[in-house]
Design goal:
The protein is mainly β and 199 residues long. The chain is built from no helices and 17 strands.
Length: 199
């Protein structure tokens, strides 16, 4: 991958970027969320993405969030199509005991949030984002070798040309440094379904 292919949506004030790593220092009160349950709309997190019309691929990145320390501090992968159609996956800091490993899918302006609790000792996570036409798979790994499925989803505006990449934010009064390394594109690792045939 060439980092020069990536473009900012809401460029952060403080960041470093070269061919091997991206560092983002988050600003307070930045987030991505639409309506559901909380009834507010937040659309101000910095996002760094590249564009493609490739229908089948996987994107892998390692995230380091050892510096996160405040509730909802987060960094991870994102596919931001527009303010009301996007997905993200991250570890969100909760407290000194546990964090939320989770994902959000937003279609037509309504977000969901699927999570599982992990130890607060975890300070890095790998993600693999895979596309098969307008369906998507998000996986995570603690070693970059063995990935576990987090979710499969359909994006209503996920056909044709898309944009995907990384993000970091601090929804409350906080700031931390998120580090992204080992970014790569590869052949789609989410294999075609082998089982019940389509109707």
């Amino acid at each position: 991958m060439d980092i020069k292919d990536f473009k900012w949506i809401r460029e952060p004030k403080n960041y470093l970027m070269d061919s091997k790593r991206v560092e983002i220092v988050t600003m307070p009160y930045t987030d991505l969320w639409q309506r559901t349950y909380y009834h507010f709309q937040n659309d101000n997190a910095p996002v760094l993405q590249m564009e493609t019309d490739e229908k089948f691929f996987s994107f892998v990145v390692k995230t380091d969030f050892a510096n996160s320390h405040h509730r909802f501090d987060q960094c991870g992968i994102v596919m931001y199509l527009d303010s009301e159609n996007w997905l993200k996956a991250s570890v969100e800091y909760e407290n000194g005991e546990f964090q939320h490993l989770g994902s959000v899918v937003t279609n037509d302006g309504y977000s969901d949030w699927a999570t599982t609790a992990i130890s607060a000792d975890v300070s890095s996570m790998w993600y693999r984002f895979s596309r098969r036409e307008d369906d998507y798979c998000i996986e995570c790994s603690q070693d970059g070798e063995y990935f576990s499925q987090m979710r499969i989803c359909h994006m209503k505006k996920g056909n044709g040309k898309i944009r995907f990449g990384i993000y970091a934010c601090s929804p409350e009064d906080s700031s931390f440094k998120a580090v992204f390394t080992d970014m790569r594109l590869c052949e789609c690792q989410w294999k075609a379904h082998n089982g019940q045939q389509p109707d």
